[in-house]
Amino acid sequence: MTEGVTGTEGATGGRAAQLKHTGLRPGWTTGACATAATTAAYTALLTGEFPDPVTITLPKGQTPSFALATEDLTAGDRAMAGVVKDAGDDPDVTHAALIRATVRLLPPGAGVVFRAGPGVGTVTRPGLPLDVGEPAINPVPRQLMRSHVAEVAARHGGTGDVEITVSVDNGAEIARSTWNPRLGILGGLSILGTTGIVVPYSCSAWIDSIRRGVDVARAAGRTHVAGCTGSTSERTVLATYDLPEDALLDMGDFAGAVLKYIRRHPVDRLTLCGGFAKLSKLAAGHLDLHSARSQVDKTFLSQLALTAGADAPLAEQVATANTGLEALRLCQSRGVPLGDEVARRARDEALAVLRGAPVEVDVICIDRAGTVVGRSDPA
């Protein structure tokens, strides 16, 4: 890898400035690494040469370059390239994993087909953003790989019809240290990432960056700030409210850190925006939303579903759902506004932490695509 995250230089506030302030080195997701390997392998199929390093374009425009750790062009209709994942300063279990992509030519019109190779899991239970039986390659990495395949095809005269098999060396062993087995993702890891960038995780550094973000917003005269759990929720907030960059706080999993600091340093209004599952944890009273320290409580969700109008059979389905997302979908299919109820409860928990500080709070719950699935009124 030869290039770092761009776009943070000179930033005075907002998410980019928070990342720069931590002093931690960001890294690359498994999805970005798989895309780089796919790009190199398909290029070699069409030209006979592997680009090394191989450069890709991430969803926000960054253009990192990756060195190839392995390559193979001995078969006539397929090529393999591999990239070693660099997670930066994040204690990611997939750091230093070798991620391979084998690209095989398909007949014209076949499109792009994804396969799970050794070390990549297969979805066996509902409730995830992929259908049962699909390889655990998430939607954003799939789209990233498709777009790069199309670019390579256009550049070198290919059709863009390929089979992409992603594998991770020792992925099955690494996956035992993740939540994949509990979620019904069996046989290996998931290929993940919405931005392509791994934001480094450090409790003290990130909480300090949240405090700095609040200070910058207040110094700039901002009266409305938003705590976002990630880049997707940040985009949702920007589409909902006309907020400047320095009013955006990268809350991550640290909802408590945002609320406690704003309690001591109030602003007129605070919006909290994040994934439905994460904010259901806040609704249940958890202030640290990280998966290692709090879990989605489906029994609690079933109680909220009853409050929102679910009947007893539906509430029982929610209680036994595989994931929070599945619980939400069950309620959506029956017209039960579980998302709104989670948002209201999360707002009430936030107000309890604020302890009467003069701050108006509203909460927005989203799904993985950034669609709003629940909102509270300001209070």
The share of residues in helices is 25-40%
With strands numbered from the N-terminus, the spatial order across the biggest sheet is: 4-5-6-10-7
Strand content: 15-25%
Query: Using only CA atoms, what is the Rg?
Result: 22 Å
Q: What summary fits the major beta sheet?
A: 5 strands, mixed
Q: Quick check: average pLDDT? A: 90
Number of strands: 18
Shape: globular
- Structural class by secondary-structure content: alpha/beta
Low-confidence stretches: 1-11
N-to-C terminal Cα separation, in Å? 47 Å
Number of H- or I-type helical stretches: 13
What keywords describe this structure?
five-stranded mixed β-sheet, alpha/beta, 18 strands, single chain, 379 residues, disordered N terminus, 13 helices, 19% strand
Can you walk through the features of this model?
The protein contains 13 helices and 18 strands. It is α/β, with parallel strands linked by helices and 379 residues long. The strands form 6 sheets. The protein has a 5-stranded mixed beta sheet with strand order 4-5-6-10-7. A 5-stranded mixed beta sheet has the order 15-14-16-17-18, with helices on both faces. Strands 1-13 form a two-stranded antiparallel ribbon. α7 links the parallel β14 and β15. The longest helix is centred in the N-terminal third of the chain and has 18 residues. It is globular, with a radius of gyration of 22 Å. The N terminus is likely disordered.
Summed up, what is this model?
The chain has 379 residues and is an alpha/beta fold. It has 13 helices and 18 strands. 38% of the residues lie in helices and 19% in strands.
